[in-house]
Amino acid sequence: MNFSQKVWNLCKKIPKGRVSTYREIAKALKTKAYRAVGSALNKNPYAPVVPCHRVVNSDGRVGGFARGVKKKIELLKKEGIKVRNKKIAGFEKVFFRLKKQLKKQNL
DNA sequence: CTAATGACATTTG
DNA sequence: ACAAATGCCATTA
């Protein structure tokens, strides 16, 4: 499994109404390649399969999106996440901690 | 193999 | 708080 494959796999596990960060994904993969995570998501061929719009920057900003940041924000709002000025409202509340949550999910 | 790039993160001015 | 510069890792040319 390639790095990108792992990234997409983790992205799929982000529940609706929650967001994660590139940094957390990288950490979950035991690496610091958050840049590579972003790149992988950018070129992700499983557009509808992988909810890549739920991945944001570590400081709570929405970051970028292949089809336009605006689109990403719209999608997030549809999921129930409030976005103000390109920033996630209650970021800490909707933040999905990959490491912990995945552990609970697996057991 | 070397160089350049990016949906980032951190530090500095 | 904002903008710019630097570092980072995987991918791609």
Summarize the structure in words.
The chain has 107 residues and is mostly helical. 46% of the residues lie in helices and 7% in strands. The protein is built from six helices and four strands, in the order H-E-H-H-E-H-E-E-H-H. It has a two-stranded parallel sheet. It has a two-stranded antiparallel sheet with strand order 3-4. Helix 1 packs across helix 3 and helix 2 packs across helix 3. The chain starts with a helix and ends with a helix. The model has no long low-confidence stretch (mean pLDDT 93). The protein binds a DNA duplex (13 and 13 nucleotides) through helix 2, helix 3 and strand 2.
Produce the secondary structure layout:
Blueprint: H1 3-12, E1 20-21, H2 22-28, H3 34-42, E2 55-56, H4 69-78, E3 83-84, E4 87-88, H5 91-94, H6 98-106
The structure holds a DNA duplex (13 and 13 nucleotides).
Rg over CA atoms, rounded to whole Å, is 13 Å
Order of helices and strands: HEHHEHEEHH
Our count of helices gives 6
Question: How many E strands?
Answer: 4
Structural class: mainly alpha
Mean of the pLDDT scores? 93
Net shape: globular
Main sheet makeup? 2 strands, parallel
User: Strands of the biggest beta sheet: in what spatial order?
Assistant: 1-2
C-alpha termini separation: 22 Å
Binned, the helix content reads: 40-55%
Return residue spans where pLDDT drops below 50 for at least 5 consecutive residues: none
Beta-strand content bin: 5-15%
